[in-house]
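--- STAGE predict ---
source: upstream dedup step, 1 unique chain passed
mode: sequence only
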Amino acid sequence: MSGLTNYQVINNAQGYPEFVVIPYEEFNRFVNRVNLETAIPSEVVDFALDNNCSALLAWRKYLGIDKNEIAQRLQLDITKYELLEAKETLNIEQRVQLAEILNINAEQLDF
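--- STAGE serialize ---
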C-alpha cells in the first residue's frame, strides 16, 4: 500500500491486538491481489515451520486426514508414504497426485 491508510486496531480482553479494521476500498485492493486458488492458510505454514516438517504433512494435519487413508489412495504401504511425507520437496507429478487427494491446488504443496 502506498500512502497513509486509516485503520483501527481492536484489542482483546488481555489488551493484545486481535483485529484490524481497514477501509473497504483498501480491503478490496488487498483481496484482489491474493490468489485464493493458491493461497496457503497461516495454520499450515505455521505448523510446517514450528514442526520443521513438509508441506504435505502440514496440509494433512490441517485437513485432518489420516496418513493411512492417503497411503491407501496412492496404493502405497504406509512406510513408503511416510518417506514421501518426509521429503522436503515433491516432484510435480507427486504434487499433482497428492493435491487431488487433498482437494487443494498442486502449487499449495510447494512451499
